[in-house]
Specification:
Layout lengths: L14 E4 L3 H12 L4 E4 L7 H5 L3 E2 L3 H6 L3 E4 L4 H8 L3 H4 L3 E4 L5 H13 L3 E7 L12 E5 L2 H11 L4 E4 L6 H29 L4 H28 L9 H18 L4 H15 L11 H5 L1
Parallel strand pairs: 1-2, 1-4, 2-3, 4-5, 5-6, 7-8
Antiparallel strand pairs: 6-7
The structure holds ligand FVH.
Length: 296
């Protein structure tokens, strides 16, 4: 146990963590570091050993884990595992708060919230927007949905995992945001890797290109904020740059890639989306207009 990392504020509430895979272990570790009395349980018991060595209490079974704390955090593979573990313990959970940080669909989240409500269980559905090494860093977000009052009551405890972002009363929204934000991440990764391959073909080191790319992303983020206002207004004036001008620009990306033997599927997809907007008569609009293609 690393005593130097563990502080014990008088107000640290007891918490239970069920599921000690890579993420669950990181969550339990963050609670311990912040001085919360932490009870842990995992299907494969040995995964609890390092946490027990840091001061966690090992529950003998899931029922013991559930009854050890008012706040019960679960982070297992999927919702099927959550329900398999907790359905038989609904009565033990009554009056407690279940925080489900397992990844799932909005529909699964809403169904689990309904199950919890039917049994008098407080329910928060969450989406962890980082990987295990980022848990405990307040610059990383953890999205919560389904219980603004519950989140307010337990904010101080949950804040030790990351910055809690309240998405409101609809329990499906953390999963919906999570799925969409992962899609955004994969699109960014794809564009960055394609561009890094392009620059690399002319001898540019990935780290050199990425330093410039990261600055560009903050400008792109600024574009997005402006375009979001257009989307909410349902109007897409091409007052900064039109789709027409971007069709011309993306041709250069395609040609540069072809000349260097770089796979062009990603820019061709963007060109296809832009051309659809142009063919529908919207070439003079801003790039935000392309949301209409996704909506179809
Ligand atoms: N790792 C990450 O970066 C991401 C970040 C965003 C959120 N995800 C989600 O977190 C859930 C758990 O992910 P994980 O990375 O901890 O996954 P594993 O290390 O594979 O651990 C899986 C745990 O689930 C337990 N488990 C699986 N099936 C069952 C079951 N039927 N009954 C009880 N427990 C079950 C497994 O137990 P064991 O195999 O050790 O016995 C692990 O504790 C996941 O939803 C991510 O999408 C992580």
């Amino acid at each position: 146990m690393n005593e130097q990392n563990v502080s014990t504020p008088a107000t640290a509430a007891p918490v239970t963590v069920i599921g000690l895979g890579l993420m669950g272990a990181a969550l339990a570790d963050a609670f311990l570091t912040a001085g919360h009395p932490t009870t842990v349980w995992n299907r494969t018991p040995g995964k609890a050993d390092p946490l027990v060595g840091r001061g966690a209490v090992r529950a003998a079974d899931v029922a013991g884990a559930v009854t050890a704390s008012e706040l019960v955090v679960v982070c297992v593979l999927d919702y099927a595992a959550v329900r398999e573990l907790l359905d038989p313990l609904a009565e033990s959970l009554r009056g407690r708060v279940l925080v489900n940080l397992t990844t799932g669909s909005p529909e699964q989240a809403r169904e689990t919230a309904d199950w919890a409500a039917a049994h008098g269980i407080g329910y928060l559905d969450g989406g962890i927007m980082t990987t295990p090494p980022g848990v405990g860093d307040s610059s990383n977000m953890i999205l919560y949905a389904g219980g603004p009052e519950l989140l307010a009551r337990h904010r101080a405890t949950l804040a030790v995992l990351g910055d809690p972002v309240d998405l409101g009363a609809d329990a499906g929204l953390a999963s919906l945001y999570d799925a969409g934000l992962l899609g955004l991440m994969w699109s960014v990764f794809g564009g960055w890797l394609h561009a890094t391959a392009l620059a690399g073909a002319d001898g540019v080191a990935a780290k050199d290109f990425t330093a410039v790319a990261n600055r560009w992303l903050s400008t792109v983020s600024w574009f997005m904020s402006g375009y979001a206002e257009q989307i909410d207004a349902g109007e897409y004036p091409g007052e900064d740059a039109t789709i027409d001008v971007q069709v011309a620009a993306i041709e250069h990306l395609l040609h540069a890639g072809e000349a260097r033997g770089v796979d062009g599927r990603l820019p061709r997809l963007h060109l296809e989306l832009m051309r659809a907007a142009v063919e529908a008569g919207h070439g003079g609009d801003s790039y935000a207009r392309i949301i209409e293609t996704f909506r179809k």
